[in-house]
Design a protein that fits this description.
mainly alpha; 50 residues
């Protein structure tokens, strides 16, 4: 699975990982495991990249 670390873009906008979690209606841990490649959710990964 490709890396979905959007840290530079997210930091430019002043957003924290928890903001992404709130936006997608998931726990911050879900975003964390997805970013680290510990879980797979192609739909969420695509939305997170966009």
């Amino acid at each position: 699975m490709p890396d979905i670390d959007q840290r530079p873009l997210r930091q430019d906008k002043g957003l924290l990982p928890r903001h992404a979690a709130d936006l997608f209606g998931v726990w911050p841990a879900i975003i964390s495991t997805l970013k680290r490649g510990k879980s797979r959710n192609d739909g969420l990964a695509t939305a997170y990249r966009e």
